[in-house]
Design goal:
This protein has 296 residues and is an alpha/beta fold. It is 35% helix and 20% strand. The longest helix is centred in the C-terminal third of the chain and has 21 residues, at 205-225. Bound molecules: adenosine-5'-diphosphate and zinc ion.
Length: 296
């Protein structure tokens, strides 16, 4: 039996999985401690669960990461603020220990790929996956392929209009203040309202403001990437009331400019939650393993 391995490498936890797809994926998770200890725990899991049947491994990682195959630091987590993890080789030790091809990408690119392979974007050629959680990040599939450039996109740090009269909060991003992440991530919501996003009641003005910022961001991404579907995940989007608010704001912001049915009449199937739920990342990593094996 051909098995693939998957790692969703997060700053808080690692989710490791073995299988061939959503129906047979077996996962474990453990906290992200030191690089050595965490990577060893992953190696041990794959040896135990897949042994010699492991064909390839895919890793969707927190970042920033080096994805350039010709770079000496390919497969590294680079300038992360996470203590102990700066310039950590992730692909090297796993590939050496397990002796399989390794696919490597950002956590959000992996999630976009997972949704394309098995989830909410199966029927489209291009899609955007945004996560709104502790940070904001985006991954995209354009013309059937994951989007990369000089590095990976950092969609959380785009600038959006910030009306200081309506929202005097200065923003929470240590680099940019009131970038998208600085205005609309979970910690930004908490800092602005002095209450955790999980505790803010339904109908609180926080949600209308959040929907406005996310709709402005989504409009920018629709104008630049022209995705076939927009998937919004992450902890903050557990708040399902945001979806109709975002769609209504988006309709207003686009103002009839995009004459395509997805946007004009089908926004409820265009702006959607992840069909794979919280397994989008690990299943995307599994899809990265499939690609790594194909191109080996
Ligand atoms: P991470 O981004 O660290 O991987 P999450 O995607 O779960 O993790 O995002 C965590 C953030 O999401 C926190 O800031 C938290 O306040 C917020 N969050 C989690 N659940 C909810 C919820 N049900 N409603 C609103 N915000 C939530
Ligand atoms: Zn920023």
């Amino acid at each position: 039996m051909k098995l693939f391995g998957a790692i969703e490498a997060g700053g808080t936890k690692f989710v490791c999985g073995v299988g061939t797809g959503p129906s047979d994926l077996r996962t474990v998770q453990f906290p992200t401690t030191s690089p050595g200890e965490t990577i060893d725990a992953a190696i041990e899991f794959f040896r135990r669960e897949a042994g010699t049947e492991l064909e390839a491994l895919g890793i969707g990682s927190f970042g920033p990461v080096d994805l350039k195959p010709t770079s000496p630091q390919f497969g590294f987590i680079t300038a992360t603020p996470k203590p102990g993890w700066q310039y950590t080789d992730v692909v090297g030790p796993l590939g050496n220990a397990l002796q399989v091809p390794v696919g490597f990408d950002t956590d959000v690119n992996a999630a976009a790929l997972g949704e394309k392979r098995w989830g909410a974007a199966r029927d489209v050629e291009s899609c955007l996956y945004l996560t709104i959680g502790t940070g904001i990040g985006g991954g995209a599939i354009v013309n059937g392929r994951l989007l990369h450039g000089i590095m990976h996109p950092e969609m959380g740090h785009i600038r959006i209009p910030h009306d200081l009269a309506a929202d005097p909060f200065a923003g929470h991003c240590p680099f940019h203040g009131d970038c998208l992440e600085g205005l609309a991530s979970g910690p930004a919501i908490q800092a602005r309202w002095q209450k955790s996003a999980t505790e803010l009641p339904s109908g609180h003005p926080a949600w209308a403001l959040e929907a406005r910022y996310l709709a402005l961001a989504v409009a920018n991404f629709i104008f630049t990437l022209s995705p076939g579907r927009v998937i919004l995940g992450g902890g903050v989007m557990q708040r399902r009331e945001l979806f109709p608010l975002i769609r209504a704001e988006l309709r207003e912001i686009l103002n009839g400019y995009l004459q395509v049915p997805q946007v004009l009449t089908r926004l409820d199937t265009y702006i959607v939650p992840p069909a794979l739920g919280n397994r989008a990342g690990v299943l995307g990593a599994l899809a990265l393993a499939e690609i790594a094996e194909d191109s080996y």
